[in-house]
């Protein structure tokens, strides 16, 4: 698996990462480049997937970039690790198997490395922690009693090759991150990070964990 590590550039613009992703996708699709994992940390940006709703934008002055990934409205920015698996899938293409493989990579990586009880929730994309009764809650959880998303996942497959990916919250500033929107259109859920769950780690460590897991989980699906 080839690694395109944009983390060495610091914060990158979403548009630049998207351009690199799509150029990579075309080459992977055509067999000119091996399957690739693109790693990055973005300048603050809001993006809206195919399932977004205008009512989820609470602050109508926010600049929002429309994108063709699955999912709804979200934020990317400092403190969040984004990974785009750009891989050519083996025929016959099994989209569900691909989604489950990406989810499993995050779940196993987080459970084995940081011992957090993450899981998937039926009908809700991403990787989650269930409701907790704790004294330290993020401002963004909007009250006690909510499930909270640790990692967003929004994927797409075009002409046998994949686009978009996952965004793992390591330590974003929740006084700025995700403000002005209803993330993923889920008013009854919260957002959290490794830091908020008591885990202190750095980007190289988190990237190594996800890369290792994705290489293992996607191996059987890649052409």
From TrEMBL:
Compartment(s) where it occurs, according to its Swiss-Prot or TrEMBL record: Cytoplasm
CDD domains: LipB
Keyword tags: Acyltransferase, Cytoplasm, Transferase
Residues the entry annotates as binding substrate: 69-76, 152-154, 165-167
Enzyme class, UniProt record, top EC level: transferase
Active site: 184 (acyl-thioester intermediate)
Presence of keyword Oxidoreductase: no
Alphabetized Pfam families for the sequence: LplA-B_cat
Gene3D superfamilies named among the record's database cross-references: Bira Bifunctional Protein, Domain 2
Domain BPL/LPL catalytic: 31-222
GO cellular component labels: cytoplasm
UniProt-listed InterPro entries: aa-tRNA-synth_II/BPL/LPL, BPL_LPL_catalytic, Octanoyltransferase
Residues the record marks as site: Lowers pKa of active site Cys: 149
Enzyme Commission number(s): 2.3.1.181
Pathway: Protein modification; protein lipoylation via endogenous pathway; protein N(6)-(lipoyl)lysine from octanoyl-[acyl-carrier-protein]: step 1/2
GO MF annotations in UniProt: lipoyl(octanoyl) transferase activity
Catalytic activity: octanoyl-[ACP] + L-lysyl-[protein] = N(6)-octanoyl-L-lysyl-[protein] + holo-[ACP] + H(+)
Principal subcellular localization: cytoplasm
Any one GO biological process: protein lipoylation
HAMAP family tied to this protein: LipB (MF_00013)
Role of this protein: Catalyzes the transfer of endogenously produced octanoic acid from octanoyl-acyl-carrier-protein onto the lipoyl domains of lipoate-dependent enzymes. Lipoyl-ACP can also act as a substrate although octanoyl-ACP is likely to be the physiological substrate.
Additional free-text comment from the UniProt record: In the reaction, the free carboxyl group of octanoic acid is attached via an amide linkage to the epsilon-amino group of a specific lysine residue of lipoyl domains of lipoate-dependent enzymes.
Family assignment from sequence similarity: Belongs to the LipB family.
Protein name from the UniProt record: Octanoyltransferase
């Amino acid at each position: 698996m080839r690694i395109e590590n944009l983390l060495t550039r610091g914060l990158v613009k979403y548009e630049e990462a998207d351009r690199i992703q799509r150029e990579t996708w075309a080459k992977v699709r055509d067999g000119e480049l091996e399957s690739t994992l693109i790693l990055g940390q973005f300048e603050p940006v809001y993006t809206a997937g195919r399932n977004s709703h205008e009512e989820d934008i609470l602050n109508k002055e926010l600049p929002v970039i429309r994108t063709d990934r699955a999912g709804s409205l979200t934020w990317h920015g400092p403190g969040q690790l984004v990974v785009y698996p750009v891989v050519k899938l083996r025929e016959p293409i099994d989209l569900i198997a691909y989604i489950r493989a990406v989810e499993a990579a995050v779940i196993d990586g987080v459970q084995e490395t940081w011992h957090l009880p993450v899981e998937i929730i039926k009908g809700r994309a991403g990787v989650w922690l269930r409701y907790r009764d704790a004294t330290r809650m993020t401002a963004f959880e909007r009250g006690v009693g909510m499930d909270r998303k640790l990692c967003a996942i929004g994927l797409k497959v075009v002409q046998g090759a994949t686009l978009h990916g996952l965004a793992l919250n390591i330590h974003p500033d929740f006084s700025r991150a995700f403000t002005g929107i209803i993330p993923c259109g889920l008013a009854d859920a919260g957002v959290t990070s490794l830091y908020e769950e008591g885990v202190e780690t750095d980007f190289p460590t988190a990237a190594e964990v996800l890369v290792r897991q994705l290489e293992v989980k996607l191996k059987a699906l890649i052409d």
